Amino acid sequence: MWRERSGRRYFAARDAGITGFSHIGLNSTDPARDELFWTQVCNARVSDRIGDIPLMRVNAIHHTIALVRAPKPGIQHVNHQVECDDDVLRSYYFLSERRVPIVFGPGRHPTSGARFLYFTGPDGMVFEYSVGVDEIEDEATHRPRQFGFEPTSFCMWGSKPAGMALPKKMAFGLRGRTAIVCAASMGLGNRPPNLREKLRSTLSILANAG
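Request: output the structure for the sequence above.
Response:
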């Protein structure tokens, strides 16, 4: 039997406000190598950088792919856009009340302008809801900005990724071992407490050696 469609979003349990997939963060053992693949083979363009993390776009949206240095390849996080700021904050309270781990936010990215919330789902996968991501208006004149690898480059409101403790010496333009330590530390919040402490100890040794 034919029924008229209302055009409203379908949601089985609650309306999270999701309007569609936006971007993915990929773990990379060699971000510079992988950046060449995405830019030279897949026609991606770098919008901005945070340390050695390139934020790349394949259309006008600020970024579709982010490459994060890590010991092994994989998915760092998956982002979905939501309709408005209220959806981000409603999800924050909804997830918090159900003890879903919030690993970052609510906050605002200074690179893309997006208001965001990161949380952990099944198998430790990190998901992000965000709204208000910038668009690149003029491809011909846009030049990537370089942000330092520090908390204020990830959130202009003061939120910090879980497990991300950056000493003062880790300032703008970090490269090499120090950048690896910072990138690895961002994932500590999802690990069991005993393993988390062991990883922090190892990362501290590496940081001091750098």
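The chain has a mean pLDDT of 80.
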